[in-house]
Design a protein that fits this description.
The protein is of the alpha/beta class. Among the domains are: 155 residues, Rossmann fold; 157 residues, Ribonuclease H-like superfamily/Ribonuclease H (Nucleotidyltransferase, domain 5, 2-Layer Sandwich); 128 residues, Taq DNA Polymerase, Chain T, domain 4 (Up-down Bundle), CATH 1.20.1060.10; 137 residues, 5' to 3' exonuclease, C-terminal subdomain (DNA polymerase, domain 1, Orthogonal Bundle). The protein has 34 helices and 20 strands. A six-stranded mixed β-sheet has the order 3-2-1-4-5-6, sandwiched between helices. A four-stranded mixed β-sheet has the order 7-10-9-8. A four-stranded antiparallel β-sheet has the order 18-19-15-20. A hairpin with a 5-residue loop joins strand 5 and strand 6. Helix 22 runs antiparallel to helix 23. It is globular, with a radius of gyration of 33 Å. The two termini are 64 Å apart. 40% of the residues are buried.
């Protein structure tokens, strides 16, 4: 057992903590930090880290002060006091209660005094401790308390620096006793202290420095510049009130014994930190079992050691292997020559992650990725996907040293595996899906795909000419040239010169928005809007794909190697990066021309296999809706059938517009499309759109029931899951703010559908991979619902039939899975 930190080493110093202020500050600083159950804990974690840092240096006695619930005397004296503050965020009170529990478990004194603010309690305690001969540190960023600093009292800012009389003089040119007068003049919008309108911080500090005090300034007002004199005289009431509000009380009747000691409740503190998944804090408080130091051992490591490594850059196909180490049962083995060490791992079945397997394949070594704590952490909570975050949550620290990374991987794997015991579905996903998939992805990344570089260079020149043509057309429509990339110039042209309606404003600046959504809504208002959207698409695809792709061709392999991210999305889908191939538009002419650049090796063909309407088929299975199931079982066209029911016409009478409307509703339902959005998409009245959606649910009644059931379960359990048990936590399903709650609802019923489709694709990849290798073919890319393979021409038909059979038979659903197959010399022609 590691020793507990000496929290209360006697130093003759009292640490006073502004609890409320610190909690609120960290609440906003660390937005988005949650436990694996989706419970927000950022304020608790930030508070604990700040407090721990202060406790390591201070603490002969520690008192943590919080605001009491009752209004203070300041609220009673001044109705507007703190009135400008935003309402308390809804998950803050729960986190504040956890912070108070944490303070109590540490054995620290906790104070809340009704009728007084934390400032007054802190000020009284600081002066009392000073009188009793202690040194005092106040942990806060609240500037009100600067008035207290003295030779014995300093403010410890959460960022780590000390505010002393010297600091105050250097920064503001003021003595502590001048601080209240300065605040009275300058005011403070955050506390709604009015001050004197027109006198800012700089001028207020100058006046107090010049006259020494507010009283002296008021006595000599006749000697002050007329404009300042008038401002002060016009705001005398505000000035006096501000002075009263700024001055903290130091005379509260408080009985606190600074000599009192109380030990932390070790067991309860450990349980608390484990419950909130603060692994790094368990580590820092010395509450974890574990070796004090890593024992060094010779290379090579024994069977089943966890591997840690350092790459010179994130992309393994391009990186140097800078360090290699392995860990087993507290012993760390370091390779003196990392690449030679990598070859030794072939013999001993070491446990390594995908990126290292990719680098090994580049070096001609087929090392299979194995147990990876990141995959376990991803299954426990898909929102927690960085090594730093996983280490923080489950106990450890992510460092830049290969041996420590190896030991951390071993420790995290043990803890996470323990958490998954009893979670049969999650264990199945790990063993049968994610773990074997990491080997498939390593091979796909190392294989790469061939690019037609001369074609791309020619395409770049062609698109450059198109960009110029579109730009000239926009200039003609505007009546003069302007910079299409400048949002301010575009704003002027659209809304001031062409008088188009300004639909929205940007959040940060309040300027009229020129976002894609606004421009789409204005498309029919003026022909220039279409040109701007066309210009944006051309320039974006040129700069994202056409120009950079040739530079990403690997000198050793002559191919492009994207990276597949297995733990990046909340739904379980794969994503890709360097480059991101998921974002090449499928249906636009330019997107198709970019796909034409992905080509097969000579005497090989590319095979594109696409799951047809997989999400709608998954919805049919999950909802059990008989009408939906029947359409797919009979092999009918789902959009034509839906249109026939929605418009109450025979199938033969369904025209292309009706089918488009039905298709929009079919897919829109999966994403929680509102009647408002549907009316925009189809350019129809709102009432008609609402009627379409209602008729859809009448046609497929079990879909609505399934959505309601999914949301109900999500509210009860805190998460939703796929057919295979992959989870996504949705704590906002119970949010009080309507827009937040509705967004969470859309996410909650889309995830089981999208996530199940993703699971089916991953399962198909795992099953297909060994069969392709036997057939002498290879798997190259996975994008959306599509797999791209490469096979020798003379075996292409056989490989296509094999892949189609495996993908369609991957898992028995209530409806058949259908795979469309195409083949060709390049990706575009393979798509047919």
């Amino acid at each position: 057992m590691e020793p507990m930190l000496p929290l209360f080493a006697p130093k003759g110093r009292v640490l006073l903590v502004d609890g409320h202020h610190l909690a609120y500050r960290t609440f906003f600083a660390l937005k988005g930090l949650t436990t694996s159950r989706g419970e927000p804990v950022q304020a608790v974690y930030g508070f604990a880290k700040s407090l721990l840092k202060a406790l390591k240096e201070d603490g002969d006695a520690v008192v943590v002060v919080f605001d009491a619930k009752a209004p203070s005397f300041r609220h009673e004296a001044y109705e507007g006091y703190k009135a400008g503050r935003a309402p308390t965020p809804e998950d803050f009170p729960r986190q504040l209660a956890l912070i108070k529990e944490f303070v109590d478990l540490l054995g620290l004194t906790r104070l809340e005094v009704p009728g007084y603010e934390a400032d007054d309690v802190l000020a009284t305690l600081a002066k009392k401790a000073e009188r009793e001969g202690y040194e005092v540190r106040i942990l806060t960023a609240d500037r009100d308390l600067y008035q207290l600093v003295s030779d014995r009292i300093a403010i410890l800012h959460p960022e780590g620096y000390l505010i002393t009389p010297e600091w105050l003089m250097e920064r503001y040119g003021l003595r502590p006793e001048q601080w209240v007068d300065y605040r009275a003049l300058a005011g403070d919008p955050s506390d709604n202290i009015p001050g004197v309108k027109g006198i800012g911080e700089k001028r207020a500090a100058g006046l107090i420095r010049e006259w020494g005090s507010l009283e002296n300034l008021l006595k000599h007002l006749d000697q002050v510049k007329p404009s300042l004199r008038e401002a002060i005289l016009a705001h005398m009431e505000d000035l006096r009130l501000s002075q009263d509000l700024s001055r903290v009380r130091t005379d509260l009747p408080l009985e606190v014994d600074f000599a009192r000691r109380q030990e932390p409740d070790r067991e309860a503190l450990k349980a608390f930190l484990e419950r909130l998944e603060f692994g790094s804090l368990l580590h820092e408080f010395g509450l974890l079992e574990g070796p004090k130091a890593l024992e060094e051992a010779p290379w090579p490591p024994p069977e089943g050691a966890f591997v840690g490594y350092l790459l010179s850059r994130p992309e393994p196909m391009w990186a140097e292997l800078e360090a290699l180490a392995a860990s087993k049962e507290g012993r760390v083995h370091r390779a003196l020559d990392p690449l030679a060490g990598l070859r030794d791992l072939k013999e001993i079945q070491a446990l390594l992650a995908k990126d290292l397997a990719v680098l090994a394949l580049r070096e001609g070594l087929d090392l299979s990725p194995s147990h990876d704590p990141m995959l376990l952490a991803y299954l426990l909570d898909p929102a927690n996907t960085t090594p730093e975050g996983v280490a923080r949550r489950y106990g450890g620290e992510w460092t830049a040293e290969a041996g420590e990374r190896a030991a951390l991987a071993e420790r995290l794997y043990g803890r996470l595996r323990e958490r998954l015991e009893g979670e049969e579905k999650l264990l199945w996903l790990y063993e049968e899906l994610e773990r074997p998939l990491s080997r498939v992805l390593a091979h796909m990344e190392a294989t790469g795909v061939r690019l037609d570089v001369p074609y791309l260079k020619a395409l770049s020149l062609e698109v450059e000419a198109e960009v110029r043509r579109v730009e000239e057309e926009a200039f003609r429509l505007a009546g003069h040239p302007f910079n299409l990339n400048s949002r301010d110039q575009l704003e002027r042209v659209l809304f001031d010169e062409l008088k188009l309606p300004a639909i929205g404003k940007t959040e940060k600046t309040g300027k009229r928005s020129t976002s894609a959504a606004v421009l789409e809504a204005l498309r029919e208002a003026h022909p220039i809007v279409g040109k701007i959207l066309e210009y944006r698409e051309l320039t974006k695809l040129k700069s994202t794909y056409i120009d950079p792709l040739p530079g990403l061709v690997h000198p050793k392999t002559g191919r492009l190697h994207t990276r597949f991210n297995q733990t990046a999305t909340a739904t379980g889908r794969l994503s890709s990066s360097d480059p991101n191939l998921q974002n090449i538009p499928v249906r636009t002419p330019l997107g198709q021309r970019i796909r034409r650049a992905f080509v097969a090796e000579e005497r090989w063909l590319l095979l594109a296999l696409d799951y047809s309407q997989i999400e709608l088929r998954v919805l049919a299975h999950l909802s059990g809706d008989e009408n939906l199931i029947r359409v797919f079982q009979e092999g009918q066209d789902i959009h034509t059938e839906t249109a026939s029911w929605m418009f109450a016409v025979p199938k033969e009478a369904v025209d292309s517009l009706m089918r488009r409307a039905a298709k929009t509703v079919n897919f829109g339902v999966l994403y929680g499309m509102s009647a408002h959005r549907l009316s925009q998409e189809l350019s129809i009245p709102y009432e008609e759109a609402a009627a379409f959606i209602e008729r859809y649910f009448q046609t497929f009644p079990k879909v609505r029931a399934w959505i309601e059931r999914t949301l109900e379960e999500g509210r009860k359990r805190g998460y939703v899951e796929t057919l295979f048990g992959r989870r996504r936590y949705v704590p906002d399903l119970t949010a009080r703010v309507k827009s937040v709650r509705e967004a969470a609802e859309r996410m909650a019923f889309n995830m089981p559908v999208q996530g199940t489709a993703a699971d089916l694709m991953k399962l198909a990849m795992v099953k297909l991979f060994p069969r392709l290798r036997e057939a002498g073919a290879r798997m190259l890319l996975q994008v959306h619902d599509e797999l791209l393979l490469e096979a020798p021409k003379d075996r292409a038909e056989e490989v296509a039939a094999l892949a189609k059979e495996v993908m369609e038979g991957v898992y028995p659903l209530a409806v058949p899975l259908v795979v469309e197959v195409g083949m060709g010399e390049d990706w575009l022609s393979a798509k047919g």
